[in-house]
Amino acid sequence: MKILVVEDSEQEMRKAVEVITSAGHQAITAEYVYWGMRHLVKDWPLNTENLEKAANAPDAVISDIMVPWSYEGNKTQSPGGVLVGWTCSQLQIPFVFCTSGYHHGPSYQWVDTFTRLNKWPRMVDGISCKGETNKDEKRKKDWDYALKKLLELCNK
Predict the structure, then answer these.
(1) SS3 of 26, please?
(2) Domain map of the chain by residue range?
(3) 3 with 26: CB under 8 angstroms?
């Protein structure tokens, strides 16, 4: 399976690629939302009137939530991963969010609510997947669990 990873941290990207390739899948990487979107959609700029999947689109996606839009000197963190998730949902590409934040934390509560309203998969965060009670926003990303949840979605 070809899996796109949208993640701006080089260290986290290496971990994600290791988990995916060790499980026998192909990892495609995008450091910014812009490049992730280019892997997903046929027409760019985004054509919302006739949204079509790119010819060589990935089979599935794991995306961070807080990802900068592009590389043009602006690495400002923004919830660009939500656009990746929305696009996947429109193109019927299975996806999972993987973040180190806490789904009820101040930066992520609205994303958790948005995913529930859209009946999207629950985010894999640094807390909920392990049952921990420490609600620190700076937990580890759980790429193993994200891949497990993604594969479950793909097998439904």
Answers:
(1) strand
(2) 2-154
(3) yes
* Residue 60, H or E segment: strand 60-63
Q: Do 1 and 7 form a contact (C-beta atoms < 8 A)?
A: no
Q: Give the DSSP letter of residue 84.
A: H
94-125 residue pLDDT tens: 999 999 888 888 888 899 999 999 999 988 98
Look-up: residue for tokens 């992730």?
36
| CATH architecture of the domain covering 2-154 | 3-Layer(aba) Sandwich (3.40)
The number of angstroms, rounded, from the C-alpha of 55 to the middle of its chain's C-alpha atoms is 20
| 8-27 burial code (b ≥16 CB/10 A, e <16) | beeebbebbbebbeeeebeb
Q: Tell whether the torsion through CA atoms of 27, 154, 40 and 121 is positive or negative.
A: negative
pLDDT tens digit sequence for 18-50? 999 999 999 999 999 999 999 999 987 777 777
| Predicted local confidence at residue 129, as pLDDT | 47
Q: What predicted TM-score, i.e. pTM, was given to this entire model?
A: 0.89
Task: Tell me the C-alpha distance between 33 and 151, whole Å.
Answer: 22
